[in-house]
Task: inverse folding
C-alpha cells in the first residue's frame, strides 16, 4: 500500500469571520465549528480557545489531541468507522495540518488527567507545547453518564478535526512524504538479505475511559491481527482513552506514530518493514493469554526476525507487555520493548509491574513518578478544579502561590511509550 | 456462574449482587488483595488482573476481583494457583510502592472511582460469562 502524506505547515491560528487557510495561517470562526460539536444533543456548550507555544497558558484536563487532516485521493475518509464509512484507508493521498492540533478538554471523571503547559518547565515535558492548539472545552447536558460524556467529547473532537482538515482540501502541501509497504512475497523478493521486522502495537483496552478503536471497533473485542502501518498513519486507530496522561497514546500519536515513521525510514535500507500487528490489553486473564499467544504465532507465521513492541499504560498492561515479549522470543523472534517506568519518586523501585529475562532489550520513556514543580501560569484553558485529583497529583498539589507540585504522570505525553517524547532515564 | 466477585465497591455489589455471587467487604483495597491471597491459598485462581486500570493504586480506594475454584474435569484455568498468587504478590508490592496516598475523598470523586471500578470489573465479568 502506498500512502502520500502532504504536509501543510500551520504557523498561526486566528479567530476570524471566515474560516480558511491562507499562507500557513488557519483562520477559524468558532461559530462554524459550534454546530459540528453541538449536533450531539449530549453536549450543551463548547468554548474554543487558542493556545500558542511560549504563552503563559495551562490546558487541563486534557482528553485527546488530534491532528486535522483531509483525504484527497484514495479509498476512505477521515477516521474510518468512527466518522467516515469503514473503507480501508492507508493508500492514496492525505493532507495533514502540521504544527497544530485540536485539543479536547472537559471534566469527564474527577481524576481524569492531563496537563499541557505552553511555557515554563512543564512545557519541556509535553510534545503538545510545541503545537499551536485549538482547544475545545465541552460542557455536557445535566446528569450525563461518564461513558456517554467520554464518547460525546471523543466524537466531537474528531468531527472538529475533520471540519478543519476540510479547509485544506485544495491547498498545495509544503512537502510530501511517501510511505509504501510491499506484499509478503514481493518483500522477500525485493529485500532477500534484509531482516524482516514487524511492529507489535498494544492498544489500551481495559474498559470505560481506557479504550481504543480500530475502524470503529472496540479493540478489546478483537483478536490480534495484521494491518498495514499506513492504515494506522491514516487514522484507522483512534484513542478513547482518558487516563494516564503521561503514557497514553492520544489520537495524534497514533496518526504520527514515531515507531512506524522510524521503521519506514529504515525500510529497504537496513530492514524489511513487514507489517504492524495490533493486539490489546484486556483485564481478563484468559484474554491476555489468548492475545499474546496469537501475537507470537503471527510473528512466527510471518517469519519475522525481530519486532518492536510498544504498550500503553501501566500495571495491568505491563503483564501483557511481558507476556508478548516472552512468547515472541520463544518463537525465535527478537524483541525490543518500549515502555516507561514507575520507579518511585527516588527512581529506586522496581520499574514495571512484571519482568522476565527475555525482556533484555528495553527502551524507556522515563520515570513517571519523578516530581516537578509547575509554576502558576496566567491563563487556564479548561479548569483547575480537578488538578488535585488527577493521577500523579495529591491534596498538596495546588500550592498557596498557585504553583503545582506533581509527578510527571500528570503531563500529557511526558513518558509516551511509543517514544513520542524526548524523555528517557539514566 | 462458577466464580465469586470479591469487592469493596458498593456499586459492584449493587449491580451484580442479585445475579452473581458477590463477597462484599467494607475494607480498604489492600485488604481485598489480602483476602484474595487467602482465597488463592485455599484453592482459588484469579480471573482478572489485580492491577487493572490505569487509575494508580494509591488513588482509587476500590478493588474488585474475580476468583473461581481451581479447574476440575474438562475445565481449564487461564492461570494456575501459583501464578495467581504471584500476580497478587506483585499487586501488593505495587500498592506498597505508591506510598504517597491521596487524602481527598469527596463524595463525587468516590462515585467516579466506583463507576470506573465497576466498568473495569464488568468488562472482566462479561468475558467470564461468555
Result:
Amino acid at each position: 500500500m502506498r500512502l502520500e502524506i502532504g504536509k501543510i505547515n500551520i504557523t498561526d491560528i486566528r479567530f476570524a469571520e471566515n474560516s480558511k487557510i491562507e499562507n500557513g495561517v488557519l483562520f477559524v470562526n468558532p461559530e462554524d465549528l459550534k454546530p459540528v460539536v453541538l449536533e450531539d444533543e449530549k453536549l450543551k456548550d463548547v468554548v474554543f480557545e487558542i493556545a500558542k507555544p511560549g504563552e503563559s497558558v495551562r490546558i487541563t484536563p486534557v482528553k485527546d489531541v488530534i491532528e486535522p487532516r483531509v483525504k484527497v485521493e484514495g479509498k476512505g475518509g477521515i477516521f474510518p468507522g468512527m466518522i467516515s464509512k469503514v473503507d480501508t484507508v492507508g493508500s492514496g493521498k492525505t493532507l495533514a495540518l502540521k504544527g497544530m492540533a485540536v485539543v479536547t478538554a472537559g471534566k469527564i471523571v474527577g481524576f481524569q488527567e492531563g496537563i499541557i503547559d505552553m511555557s515554563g518547565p512543564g512545557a519541556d515535558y509535553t510534545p503538545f507545547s510545541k503545537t499551536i492548539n485549538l482547544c475545545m472545552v465541552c460542557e455536557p447536558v445535566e446528569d450525563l453518564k461518564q461513558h456517554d460524556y467520554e464518547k460525546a467529547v471523543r466524537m466531537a473532537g474528531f468531527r472538529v478535526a475533520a471540519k478543519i482538515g476540510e479547509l485544506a482540501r485544495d491547498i498545495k502541501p509544503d512537502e510530501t512524504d511517501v510511505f509504501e509497504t510491499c506484499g509478503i512475497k514481493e518483500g522477500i523478493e525485493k529485500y532477500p538479505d534484509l531482516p524482516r521486522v514487524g511492529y507489535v502495537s498494544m492498544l489500551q483496552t481495559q474498559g470505560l475511559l481506557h479504550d481504543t478503536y480500530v475502524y470503529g471497533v472496540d479493540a478489546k473485542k478483537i483478536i490480534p491481527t495484521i494491518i498495514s502501518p499506513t492504515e494506522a498513519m491514516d487514522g484507522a486507530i483512534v484513542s478513547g482513552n482518558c487516563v494516564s496522561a503521561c503514557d497514553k497514546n492520544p489520537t495524534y500519536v497514533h496518526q504520527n506514530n514515531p515507531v512506524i515513521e522510524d521503521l519506514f525510514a529504515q525500510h529497504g535500507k537496513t530492514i524489511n518493514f513487514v507489517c504492524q500487528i495490533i493486539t490489546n490489553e484486556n483485564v481478563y486473564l484468559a484474554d491476555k493469554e489468548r492475545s499474546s499467544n496469537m501475537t507470537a504465532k503471527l510473528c512466527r507465521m510471518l517469519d519475522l526476525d525481530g519486532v518492536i513492541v510498544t504498550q500503553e499504560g501501566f500495571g495491568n498492561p505491563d503483564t501483557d507487555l511481558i507476556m508478548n515479549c516472552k512468547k515472541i522470543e520463544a518463537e525465535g523472534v527478537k524483541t525490543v520493548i518500549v515502555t516507561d517506568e514507575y520507579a518511585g519518586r527516588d527512581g529506586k523501585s522496581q520499574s514495571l509491574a512484571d519482568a522476565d529475562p527475555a525482556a533484555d532489550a528495553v527502551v524507556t520513556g522515563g520515570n513517571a513518578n519523578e516530581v516537578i514543580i509547575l509554576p502558576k501560569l496566567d491563563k487556564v484553558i479548561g479548569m483547575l478544579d480537578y488538578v488535585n485529583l488527577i493521577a500523579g497529583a495529591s491534596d498538596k498539589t495546588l500550592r498557596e502561590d498557585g504553583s503545582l507540585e506533581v509527578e510527571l504522570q500528570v503531563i500529557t505525553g511526558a513518558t509516551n511509550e511509543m517514544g513520542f517524547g524526548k524523555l528517557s532515564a539514566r | 456462574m462458577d466464580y465469586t466477585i470479591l469487592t469493596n465497591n458498593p456499586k459492584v455489589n449493587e449491580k451484580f449482587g442479585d445475579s452473581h455471587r458477590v463477597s462484599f467487604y467494607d475494607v480498604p483495597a489492600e485488604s481485598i488483595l489480602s483476602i484474595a491471597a487467602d482465597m488463592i491459598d485455599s484453592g482459588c485462581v484469579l480471573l482478572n488482573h489485580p492491577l487493572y486500570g490505569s487509575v494508580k493504586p494509591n488513588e482509587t480506594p476500590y478493588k474488585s476481583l474475580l476468583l473461581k475454584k481451581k479447574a476440575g474435569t474438562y475445565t481449564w484455568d487461564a492461570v494456575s494457583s501459583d501464578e495467581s498468587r504471584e500476580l497478587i504478590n506483585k499487586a501488593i508490592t505495587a500498592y506498597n510502592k505508591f506510598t504517597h496516598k491521596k487524602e481527598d475523598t469527596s463524595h463525587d470523586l468516590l462515585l467516579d472511582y466506583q463507576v470506573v471500578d465497576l466498568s473495569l470489573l464488568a468488562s472482566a465479568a462479561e468475558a467470564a460469562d461468555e
Notes: The longest strand of chain A covers residues 43-51. The first helix of chain A runs from residue 30 to 38. Chain A has one domain: 2-410. The interface with chain B takes residues 109-111, 146-147, 204, 206-210, 220, 241, 243-244, 248, 282-289, 313-319, 342, 344-345, 349-350, 353-354, 388-389, 391-392, 394-395, 409 of chain A (CB under 8 Å).
